[in-house]
Amino acid sequence: MKAGGLQPLILVYLYGVLSAASLGKVIPLHDRIAELPGAGPNSFALFIALFALAPALLGTLSGVVVDRIGSRPVLIAASLLGAAVNALYLLAPSIGAFLALRVLEGFIPLGIYAAAPALMIALSTPHNRNAAMSLWSTYAPVGTSVGLLLSAAFASSPHWRDGFALHGILFAGMAFMGLSLPRPAREPRPARAASRSAFALLYTRAGIRPARLAASLGLMIALGLGVSVVFPPYFAQAHHSSIGQASALLAAANIVMIAGSLASGVLLTRGTRCLWLFIASAAIGSLAAWGIFAPRVNAGINLLALLVWLVATGAAMAAIASLLPQVAPPEQRASVAGLLSQSGAIMTFITPSIWLPVLALQQWWLLVAVAVVGWILCTLVLPASGLASSRA
Question: Which residues form the domain of 129?
Fold first, then answer.
């Protein structure tokens, strides 16, 4: 493979997809995991959450490590870890073993989410860099859907762990494919002294802009995940359906985020100012939030508003991703990507405790207000380079 081409960018992107599949693959296995020896009422929720533990604690530090040793070996090592962990799931006898493996599994995104975007930037050209970042911003919905497909077919059979086996085989294949990844022509390394503290490194060399970008991403995750958390119970109650049916509708609709991300990439590549694109996404998303939670309307209105919301959030996520090459010097791109991963993981923990109490108040306009305030804050904290053209 040669740097600058489409093939290596797609390969690097697939590492993110396969890592995100670790979330989706366990959703159909709720009952199976809840029946494991030693499992309690909250075991499955804990199993889900532990995947974000390592990125939440070590995200920025992992980026510093990637900047020191390079993205390519980290992607290969993370894939080998993915193959090993999924193989161990086949043998895990109890919920305790599953929880321990879930913590270990969290080290896969810890490496991939720092290394992959940094390598995509290094392998892309100024002409296709915004498109590459827009593609990267879609890894989460695509990966979640891939994960659902990995295990859904096995969930109701005695061989329900075969989804883990398939996931492990895919990781092993990605580890082998990683050997064909090109090495960027130049990968400058930060000075040895600068690596002592991840946060000191970011603030000393790159200023406050990486932190603002991370805050903006975290707020976007709080918006996207928050609506995903409260939509199924809200829709089920409003339209007298089951939460399972509402969740299935949300899972299917989630794919339209890709359309928003890719459309954003096209506009950014053609010179659209990132700030105006983001403001437009915020305005559309705020209006869509009203439609999602509007009471006493046809279910089709709520679902149409949900689709519009997902397109807007997809476009906004792509806009944020396009700013990564601007706020991070070449030798610190993985560090900044790690900071973004850490911000997202932290917000994944916090978000349910923000949205669910608001849902419990049964005041639809409060849900809309949280969404609108979130969009406003997200726009305000965008780094200063977001005020200019998004071209690298």
Answer: 6-181
